[in-house]
Specification:
Number of domains: 1
Shape: globular
Order of helices and strands: HEEEEEEEEEEEEEEEEE
Radius of gyration: 19 Å
Number of helices: 1
Oligomer: single chain
Largest sheet: 6 strands, antiparallel
Length: 281
């Protein structure tokens, strides 16, 4: 097993060495729309809601941000791995994606063009799918942080892919309604922004253009590393996924991991609670 030589070593880490961490979370409900995507990074509860940054200034995100699930880095020479995640809700919540939030690029949606960090972007933390800074296995989402409705406009980021090649990826923003916590995903393309087909992964964003004002003053292009999905498709239930035996992947959680959730909503509200368990070896 990645990071552990035997199942007994996992039990030992949890019960003898004290190398396990179970983090509980509770997120308040807000108005959602079924079959649409929402980011709990901006949702109130525990952990607290995140904040919007500075227009045109990218910033790296880590576990020191208040909106991230509490996470203590692994000790020297040890590695941290996800063991399980459980989610409960009084409704048919939908499918919940656990992700690591690596970098944010806030922009004013009323400004139709701008550079990020003077066109240089911001260096990605060493937390891509293989623990590097190149953006391997990383995805882009675009969010509306404001209560102002976002209108459908063509958004075109200029970014550097995981191979170090600069590319553009134009798509149309989905009109976001009034919820500031809703992900503005591209029309007909699901949750992740459709990157240029010639490259995979994303390490930084240099600039953007908009076909016209999309009205919301607080937008954000965010680089994330997707980690795991848990579906909660029954009301008044608690669902847990085991990433050791049930889904033997043991995803690696690198130093500074900033965990949060994205929901594919199944209803018009989204109350949820649960826990994430990880251990180091």
């Amino acid at each position: 097993m990645a990071g552990f030589s035997t199942y007994d070593s996992i039990i030992n880490a949890l019960t003898v060495s004290g190398y396990g961490q179970r983090v509980w979370f509770n997120k308040d409900s807000y108005v959602t729309v079924g079959t649409s995507y929402y980011d709990f990074w901006m949702g109130s509860g525990s952990p607290a809601a995140g904040t919007w940054g500075v227009h045109g200034t990218g910033r790296a995100i880590d576990n020191t941000f208040a909106a991230a699930l509490p996470f203590t880095n692994a000790g020297a020479t040890r590695t941290m791995h996800l063991l399980s995640m459980g989610v409960g809700s009084s409704i048919i919540l939908g499918s919940l994606l656990l992700y690591d939030r690596l970098a944010e690029y806030p922009f004013d949606g009323t400004d139709t063009a701008n550079d990020f960090n003077a066109g240089a972007g911001v260096a990605l933390p060493a937390r891509d799918a293989i623990g590097g800074t190149n953006g391997v296995g990383c995805a882009l989402i675009v969010e509306n942080f404001s209560a102002t409705a976002c209108t459908a406009q063509t958004f075109t980021p200029t970014y550097t892919d995981s191979a170090g090649v600069d590319r553009t990826a134009a798509a149309v923003l989905f009109a976001s309604g009034t919820s500031g916590k809703r992900i503005v995903h591209p029309v007909a393309n699901g949750i992740f922004w459709p990157l240029n087909a010639a490259g995979t992964g994303i390490r930084l964003i240099k600039s953007y253009t908009l076909g016209a004002s999309c009205l919301s003053p607080q937008m954000c292009a965010t680089i994330i590393r997707p980690i795991a999905v848990v579906p909660v498709m029954t009301a008044d239930s608690y669902v847990e996924r085991d990433f050791v035996l049930q889904l033997a992947a043991l995803p690696r959680l690198y130093d500074g991991t900033a965990l949060s959730f994205i929901l594919l909503a199944g209803a018009t509200t989204c109350p949820m609670w649960g826990s994430v368990l990880f251990a180091e070896n």
